[in-house]
Design brief:
Largest sheet: 5 strands, antiparallel
Number of domains: 1
Strand content: 15-25%
Order of helices and strands: EEEEHHEHHH
Shape: globular
CATH architecture: 2-Layer Sandwich
CATH topology: Nucleotidyltransferase, domain 5
Helix content: 40-55%
CATH class: Alpha Beta
Strand order of the largest sheet: 4-3-2-1-5
Number of strands: 5
Length: 153
C-alpha cells in the first residue's frame, strides 16, 4: 500500500507492507524519495498506520540528526496523508530488500525495539539511491531543502 502525502514533503509518499516473523507482525514503511525505513506495530494498522508513521518518523528524524524545525514542518505536511495502492515498482523492490533484512534482524536480535530496527535498517546501502544509505540520503535531502529555502524565501 502507499501512503499519499502532500507534494511539499521532503520524503514524498510512503510505501508499506505487512511483515510477519513468527508470531510478530509489524508494518515496514519506506519513503519514496530517500527509502528511509520505519517499522511500526501492525495492530489495527489500517486505522492507525498514518498516526504511527508520523510519530515514529519524528523520533527517527531527530535521532539521525535532522533539525527539530525541519522535523516539525515534515510532520505537519504529513497530517493530511491518505492510503492508496502502490505505484512505484523500484521502491517496491527496495521495500522487499529491506523486508528481508528486517526479518533477519528480528530473528537474530528479537529484543530490539521497533525504533532500533528502523535505525538499523536506515544504515543499509541500497541500489535505488546509488548505494547510499537511507539515513544519509534523508539527512542530505533535508539539508538541501534548508539550503535552497535561503535562496527562494
Amino acid at each position: 500500500m502507499t501512503i499519499i502525502t502532500t507534494p511539499d514533503t521532503v520524503l514524498g509518499d510512503w510505501y508499506a507492507n505487512l511483515i510477519r516473523v513468527g508470531r510478530m507482525q509489524v508494518v515496514l514503511a519506506v519513503s519514496e524519495r530517500t527509502l528511509l525505513p520505519l517499522v511500526v506495530p501492525a495492530k489495527e494498522s489500517r486505522r492507525l498506520l498514518v498516526p504511527r508513521l508520523i510519530e515514529a518518523l519524528g523520533e527517527q528524524l531527530l535521532s539521525i540528526g535532522v533539525p527539530q524545525e525541519d522535523v516539525q514542518v515534515e510532520l505537519q505536511a504529513m497530517q493530511s496523508s491518505a492510503i492508496a495502492k502502490t505505484a512505484n515498482r523500484r521502491v517496491l523492490g527496495s521495500l522487499n530488500d529491506l523486508a528481508f533484512q528486517l526479518e533477519t534482524g528480528i530473528k537474530h536480535s528479537p529484543d530490539r525495539s521497533l525504533m532500533e530496527l528502523s535505525l538499523w535498517l536506515a544504515k543499509t546501502p541500497l541500489t535505488y539511491i546509488e548505494q547510499a544509505s537511507p539515513k544519509y540520503a534523508t539527512v542530505a535531502a533535508f539539508a538541501t531543502r534548508r539550503a535552497l529555502s535561503k535562496f527562494v524565501a
